[in-house]
Amino acid sequence: MPLKVMDVVEQRLAVLLEPGWSGRTVREVCRRHGISPDTFYAWKQRYDTDGLAGLAPRSRRPGSSPAQLDAALEDRIVALRKAHGWGPVKIRDALRREGLVVPASSTVQQALARRGILTPRPRRARPTGPGHRFERSASNQLWQIDGAMHHLADRSPYWTVEVIDDHSRFCPAITVGPGLTGHLTWSTVCTAVALYGVPEWILTDNGRCFTGRLHGDEVSFERRVKAAGICLTHSRPYHPQTCGKVERLHHTQRVWLARHPVPATLAQAGELFRMFRRHYNTERPHQALHGATPAEVYRPGLGIELPAVDLEPADHTPPGCLRRKTRPCGAFTYAGTSLSVGEKWGGVTIGVLREHGRLHAFYGSSLLDTFLVGSALPTPTR
């Protein structure tokens, strides 16, 4: 036996023999060595049965563990972790949805730790302030909308716009485009409304594609939302917590994307985000929904097609103006030349007035911009 083990055996043997040569009682010997009489007699029984080998240290592991986690269940826990990267609570909810025997989340965590696939993370400090949580009482009462930037395989950027229902966390639509524009945000709303009905309110941050309130004007997204009869509200500047549900969706989205190949084209990106939306709505248990999926909680409305609204200004353009309908990016054509008044004026009818080598663009009576076109450019009649 190793020297260390023999030392323990010899010490225990000396304790057993001490009452015989010292004249002390067993209890006195036990008090002298700091052990209980039960331990003394257990050593003695093992010594009488097995000799010196019986005094060697033994494992304290129980002979049987009736409550031990089933091996097949532990394998399923590991499979869910590897497939989705979920934590113990979400894995527990997924097991419940599959009709399996559901262990505590701490048991799931121990199983992952035994397999060596749980990465310990430091505890995050809780916010010091009291905070103010809100959740609407029914579906389609409030939608949150925001955009996020991603990169294709060649590192070129592209954007997505996501809508999330405040009550159910259901994601009605995700659209993909080369830039975060008012046209992309409005097309996302139109897509969601066509499938699931009109919301009462829409909540956004203060991005220029959503609102011009911090710049003293009104962008096309605001005008279209109001024309559709939807109330529009915004978070205060530098307070993303107000739009926390859609911000949390972005985090879930990035974790999911990290486990999939990077798309090479916008078309591939669109297909990838269709897969993500299906996974998020119908497969992934949501802790805020007590383990249910957003699709199980969401109650859609009647989908409708929002009409193309030609947003007219409140007043008339100056006399002599020619009318031009701007494209979604804010561009228009004059005498075969493409000009732009900016994306915030996309999709509206403006007036253009030629004055020698200058071209003035008006929205109603408000001057939007002046372009130097020179005298060589012909003047169209209409």
Automatic annotation (TrEMBL):
| Residue ranges of domain Integrase catalytic in the record | 126-302
Against PROSITE patterns, the record matches this protein to: INTEGRASE
> A GO BP term, please?
DNA integration
Question: What Gene3D superfamilies is this protein classified in?
Answer: Ribonuclease H-like superfamily/Ribonuclease H, Winged helix-like DNA-binding domain superfamily/Winged helix DNA-binding domain
Q: What molecular function does GO assign, one term?
A: nucleic acid binding
Q: Which InterPro entries match?
A: Homeodomain-like_sf, Integrase_cat-core, IS481-like_transpos, RNaseH-like_sf, RNaseH_sf, WH-like_DNA-bd_sf
NCBIfam families the record matches: transpos_IS481 (NF033577)
Q: State the PANTHER family in the record.
A: BLR2054 PROTEIN (PTHR47515:SF1), LOW CALCIUM RESPONSE LOCUS PROTEIN T (PTHR47515)
Name-wise, this protein is IS481 family transposase
Q: Which organism is it from?
A: Pseudonocardia broussonetiae
